[in-house]
Amino acid sequence: MKAIANRYEFLLVFDVANGNPNGDPDAGNLPRLDPETGRGLVTDVCIKRKIRNFVTLQDRAGSAIFVRERQPLNPKIAQAFEVNDLPTFRKSDGKWDTKLAKERSQEDILVAQEWLCAQYFDVRTFGGVLSTGPNAGQIRGPIQLTFAQSVEPILPMEIAITRVADVDKAEGEMGRKHIVPYGLYVARGFISAKLAQRTGFSESDLEFFFDALKNMFEHDRSAARGEMATRKVIAFKHANALGNAPSHSLFDRVKIQRQISGEARDIDERLDNYPPARKFADYSITIDRVGLPDGVEIIDVL
């Protein structure tokens, strides 16, 4: 299928209520945050995981997922060489001869990469480091995501819970849950048409990707994550592969403000005397569509 021919940027806006959108293992699984500003963070790999999980629910040709829980990657890389009658350099003990693998020809690597891109949606979309084991090199994917950051500082809370039935003893015990009462987060994404040509990322893939952004939280429910929802997806489509305007100038056209007593207030203003935000209706999102650069189109994906 023909690869996309246009560059895109997009904004992903999502929120969480009474949940932990992305725990930090270095801080006892507290919600991630920027210690200087107090704003919450969600890593790019966390968002990609949710996209991958949504894709696994679909019965779509060429949309297998390469990075899955408890599934080693090297056998999948080896399969790319096996189906193309190329050596995998697997030794009798089941491991790979890394020295021979490192000397593999670029022609063999390209053959394996093409097969992997055709089979796996996440490789075709995000790329991957495939230089382990049989060695299929590295693939730069056309879609890259930033960390998501909350538009206002968050207040991580530690909630005590009780467990009435222990696994070994009769009496129960105390436990902890970490939540954010409410947070509105924004992530930025970049889609390169030039890199899409290398992986075969198509218009159909792009439509599928946007569908995943809109619906990924609908199939990722748990008590730990509370209520999470995609609230807005805004894409900027360029008329060509290289683009028609700097991405930062396009992102600046999207403005998120607090709604206080029916009045939109800038987040930078001191809002200490007003109630904290606790729902999406406490914010407004506006897009400046006036004087848009030539060759740039705004698409309201959601």
Describe the structure.
The chain is an alpha+beta fold. The chain contains eight helices and 15 strands. It has one domain (8-300). It has helices spanning 44-56, 74-82, 98-102, 106-119, 121-126, 193-199, 203-215, 247-251, and strands at residues 8-19, 23-24, 30-31, 39-42, 127-129, 138-140, 143-145, 148-153, 157-163, 173-191, 227-238, 254-260, 263-266, 283-287, 296-300. Strands 1, 4, 7, 8, 9, 10, 11 and 15 form an eight-stranded antiparallel beta sheet that branches.
Order of helices and strands: EEEEHHHHHEEEEEEHHEHEEEE
* Major sheet details: 8 strands, antiparallel
How many structurally independent domains?
Answer: 1
3D shape: flat
Short description:
This protein has eight helices and 15 strands. It has 302 residues and is of the alpha+beta class.
Features:
single chain, 302 residues, alpha+beta, 8-stranded antiparallel β-sheet, 3-stranded antiparallel β-sheet, 8 helices, 15 strands, 24% helix, flat
Write the layout of secondary structure elements.
Layout: E1 8-19, E2 23-24, E3 30-31, E4 39-42, H1 44-56, H2 74-82, H3 98-102, H4 106-119, H5 121-126, E5 127-129, E6 138-140, E7 143-145, E8 148-153, E9 157-163, E10 173-191, H6 193-199, H7 203-215, E11 227-238, H8 247-251, E12 254-260, E13 263-266, E14 283-287, E15 296-300
Antiparallel strand pairs: 1-10, 1-11, 2-3, 4-8, 5-6, 7-10, 8-10, 9-10, 11-15, 12-13, 12-14
Helix pairs in contact: 1-7
